[in-house]
Amino acid sequence: MNILSVASEVFPLIKTGGLADVAGALPIALAGHGMHMRTLMPGYPAVMQRLAKTEVVATFEDLLGEPARILAATHEGIDILVLDAPGFFDRQGGPYTDATGKDFVDNWRRFAALSLAGAEIARGLIPGWQPDIVHAHDWQAAMTAVYMRYTGLQHIPTVVTVHNLAFQGQFGPEIFTGLDLPPEAFSVEGLEYYGDVGFLKGGLRTAWSITTVSPTYAHEIMTPEYGMGLEGLINARAGELVGIVNGIDTAVWNPETDPHIARSFAAGSLKKRAMNRKALVERFNLIEDDGPIFCVVSRLTWQKGIDIIAEVADWIVERGGKLAVLGSGDQGLEGTLLAAASRHRGHVGIVIGYNEPLSHLMQAGSDAILIPSRFEPCGLTQLYGLRYGCIPIVARTGGLADTVIDANEAALSARVATGFQFTPINAEGLRQALRRVFKAWHEPKVWARIQNQGMKSDVSWENSAARYADLYSSLLSRV
Ligand code: ADP
Rg (Cα) of the chain, in Å, rounded? Predict the structure, then answer.
């Protein structure tokens, strides 16, 4: 089976969030199921520099106003198709924003072009390779399904995956004429979204199947609280909606071989974590004593509940806990955390920035990871935590609820607990959970048992890839 995946970021070529991890891991995991996935992505400068050998497999004289080519390459086992369109992608800044953090004004055209290229590949653009299924990720690629629906490719099954419904790609109606679509596409059955053009909306309307990255999030997005205006449409398509939890790359995230940590360890040798804790204490200028170290590795945004952490920081320190934060994002939140760090020198440490190697040491050296997200489609950092004996303390929402088993009395005595969940998602909710966490910390046997049980959780792509493989097969059987 041939599958075309379309994504705006793919790890390890370029990454701003969990989407990249999924887009990078899925092709490799699916190969074990006899499926050949090729991934179409934009040719950002960082991507073009990293690809060693490329071959031109198609050209467009005019792709929504720009000349473009499709280059084929292989990178760390991933079969990549790069949309090389310098007019759209050869620029300074991130994938979506300029150097000052502002969205590029032509993002609609850039990602419509990516999607249109995906649809053309589905039409047979690349000699000798025809996808049986097209799988598009998030709003940046969702238009692939729309182009396919309105240009005579309805017979090829399409899947649109929602990694985060908060990002929808909504633009003014005036852009419609620039999309090169027939007028009927600007309708409730297509792109029209409260009078605007909705890229994700169009994808969710036209795709054969919709997936999101956890079963709980799949339920949540049918409600007004989490549906972000799309709950009506999602409810109408509930029969086509599936929630599949993400896995993680267990080769990259392996405490037994991780090159970024001070000392490797395994479930049977948790005492060796002490060296990592020591390295972390030094990196964050913390005072070493016998309290638990809580880490945070996150975008610093309201979604991630970073304000809740700031609110609880003093309370944690009063009880003998330490806080080590790695992240970047909202400047107001960065400021609040920096203020907490200067109030509590030696007890609260913060590193502002994006630092992949340090994120590994955080998981290996901290005792627990705090994830108080207000909503969390899947979340990856709790999965890394499970694998590294860094106990996840999570808000009971989305994928966090699906992947962490709360250490309540029943789960503790059944020896299945892997972390702590809390609700309501506010400072008092988190403090309630932390009271239980401190209690467990003072019972080392209980603590070690929760760590060990977490390390036994299956966080690999195995199960999830099998679910995607089943979904593709069931769609093909409907053709
Ligand atoms: P989201 O995609 O919403 O940001 P996820 O938990 O799904 O959240 O994925 C976040 C990914 O980004 C994880 O791999 C996490 O380790 C990584 N990450 C987030 N912030 C940082 C940072 N400051 N430095 C290094 N890695 C980070």
Answer: 23
